[in-house]
C-alpha cells in the first residue's frame, strides 16, 4: 500500500505535526493522571475494608461465636454487616483459619484461601489479593474476646469490580478535561497555522530552504554593500562587501552600529538620524553613497563605493580646467604670434627678440623655482599644474619663499590628495571675485612634513571651523555630476589615519589658513640608508 505524502506547505506541516503532538500530550497526560488515581482508589478500598473489619472485630457476639465455633451466629452477624456496608464478603475464622462465615455457605468449614497467620498473630493487614471471589481489596484484623484473647480473624473484602466502577465514573470527567484541552490545543494550532500561512505566503518548506540559499548567494555575490538593522539599530546581517567597505569586525552581528563605527556622518546616516537619498559619506579614504530604507522591523541600508568614480571625476575636473587653460593660452599664444609678426614686419627685430624672451621665460622661471624648492616630483608637478589652472581663473598661486621640501614623500598619492583638495577649495573660494592670492608653504622637520595653504579670501567664521570637515557640508552649490562636501572630510580622515592633525584658522593673507602636520611622511636620508 502506498503511504500518503507528507504535506509540503509549511502551515500544513505545522498543523499536522502540532495536532499529533497535542493528541499525544493529551493521551499521556490522561494516562499519567489515571495511574495515581487507580492506585489511590485501591488504597481507599483497602482502608475501607480494614475499617469494616475493625468494626466487625469489636462485636463481642461474633468473638464468642468464633471462640465456641458457633457457625450459625457467626454467619448471621457477618452477613448482616456485609449487607449493611456493601462489602463483597465478611469472613470470620477460628484460630485454625477455618471459615465460620462466607457469602457462599458451601465454603463454610473450609480453610481460607489466603494466609491468616499475620492476623492471627495480632497484626492488622491490608492487601490486594486474589481469592475465591476474585481480585479484592482486603482488610484483615485479629478477632479478640473481652479478655483480649485472639480467637480468630475477621477478613473483609471489597471486589475489584466496585473499584473499577468508581474509576470509570472518574474516567468520564478525566476524558472530558482531556478532550477540552485537546480541542483548545487543536484550535490554537489551527490559528497559528493560518497565521503562519499568511506570513510565509503559503510556500513550501523546500522553497524556504531554496530562498534562503539564493538570498545568501545574492547578498554575498553582489558588489554593493548591504546591512540589515533591527528596530534598536543592531546589525542583523552584513554581506561581505559591507564588511569590506565599512571595515566592520567579524563579530559585528548583533552589535549596535554606534559600537562598531566611530561617531560621524556615516553613523548618523546608517542609524537614520540623517535622512535622504544617495547620501555621501566617508569611511577612511573611501567615498560611499548610502541609501537607507525603513522596514517594519528595522531598516535595510545599501552602500555603493564611489571612491574610484570620485577620483575619476576629480581627474576629469582637473582635465577640464587644464583644457580651458590651454584654450585660453592658445588664444594668448595667437595674440603673441600676431604681435611678434607685426614687430618683424615693422623691422623692429630687437624688440621682437626681447618680447619672445620675456614671454618664454616667465613660465620657465615659475617651474624652475618650484622644482628648486620641492624635490618630490609628484608634489612639484601638482604645484606647477595648479599654478597654471589658478592663473587662468584669475588667482595667483605662489610658493612661499621659505618653502622647502628636500626629500621624497612616503605616500605621494595621499599627500597629493591632501594638498590638491586644499588648493582646489582655496581657488574655488577666490575665483568668483578674481584677483586673489594663494600661498603654499612646505617645510620638513626630520621625517615630519608641515604644509600650509593660506588665501586672501573671506575666510571661515570661527563657529564653522569644525563643521567644514563634516561630510556633506559645503558652502557652494553642488554640480550635477557629483556631490559636494567630501573633499575636506576625506582630507581630515587621511591626515588623522597617519597620526597627523589639521587645523583651520585665519592666515597672514586675511583669509583661511589650513595647517597640516604629517609625521613620518618623508623619506629622510637615514630612512633611505636603513
Written overview of the protein:
This protein has 530 residues and is of the alpha+beta class. The chain folds into 3 domains: 11-166, Beta-Lactamase, CATH 3.30.450.20; 222-303, PAS domain (Beta-Lactamase, 2-Layer Sandwich); 366-529, Heat Shock Protein 90. 50% of the residues lie in helices and 19% in strands. It contains 15 helices and 14 strands. A 5-stranded antiparallel sheet has the order 6-5-9-8-7, sandwiched between helices. It is rod-shaped. Residues 525-530 have low confidence and may be disordered.
Low-confidence spans: pLDDT under 50, at least 5 residues?
Answer: 525-530
Structural class: alpha+beta
The neighbouring-strand order within the major sheet is 6-5-9-8-7
- Mean model confidence by pLDDT: 77
The CATH superfamily of the largest domain appears as: Histidine kinase-like ATPase, C-terminal domain
Radius of gyration: 53 Å
Q: Domain count, please report it.
A: 3
CATH architecture descriptor name of the largest domain: 2-Layer Sandwich
Order of helices and strands: HHHEHEEEHHEEHHHEEEHHHEHEEHEEH
The 3D shape can be described as rod-shaped
Q: What portion of residues is helical?
A: 40-55%
Portion in strands:
15-25%
What is the CATH topology assignment of the largest domain? Answer: Heat Shock Protein 90
Largest sheet entry = 5 strands, antiparallel
CATH C-level category of the largest domain: Alpha Beta
Count up the helices: 15
How many β-strand runs? 14
Distance between the termini: 86 Å
